[in-house]
Amino acid sequence: MSEDIYQEFILELYKNPVNFGKIENADLHEQSFNPLCGDKIEMFIKLDAGRKKIEDVKFIGNGCAISQASASLLTEELKGKTLEEVDKMGKEEIIKMIKIDLSKNPSRLKCAMLGLEVVKKAINTSVKEIQRI
Ligand code: FES
């Protein structure tokens, strides 16, 4: 498949993102923005009873097609993963997920990574809170 087809799939997801919305009473909630453009993503995460796995995740945000489509794809990818597994995810997983090699395009890679950054921030804040209790 050519890269055009992948871009079309990104644009389609940008127009109709899966898992777009909020989760009331989310266990984890965090937001962040790309300082280069001001685009923003907010993530809502529901954990399982043992608070180790992601049961459900939704996002809201505004920004470029890559940031929003990547956040949307990420929400699908995260369901059922443990917090430890998610914390180990990095740019290789994101590039594989969006099927566009952005390794030589740092500013677009930053767009694609925004969703994962927010999720990791949420996980790390919650771990610190648990340690404080
Ligand atoms: Fe702002 Fe992509 S241009 S996140």
What would you say this structure looks like, in words?
The chain contains 5 helices and 3 strands; from the N terminus they run H-E-E-E-H-H-H-H. The chain is α+β, with helices and mostly antiparallel strands and 133 residues long. It has a single domain, classed as Sufe protein. Chain: A. It has a 3-stranded antiparallel beta sheet with strand order 1-2-3, with helices on one face. The chain is globular and about 45 Å long. It starts with a helix and ends with a helix. The chain binds FE2/S2 (inorganic) cluster. The site of FE2/S2 (inorganic) cluster (FES) has 9 residues, from helix 2 and helix 5.
Main sheet strand line-up: 1-2-3
CATH topology, anyone?
Sufe protein. Chain: A
Oligomerization state: single chain
Q: Give the strand tally.
A: 3
Hetero groups: FE2/S2 (inorganic) cluster
Radius of gyration: 14 Å
SS class = alpha+beta
Residue runs with pLDDT of under 50 for 5 or more positions: none
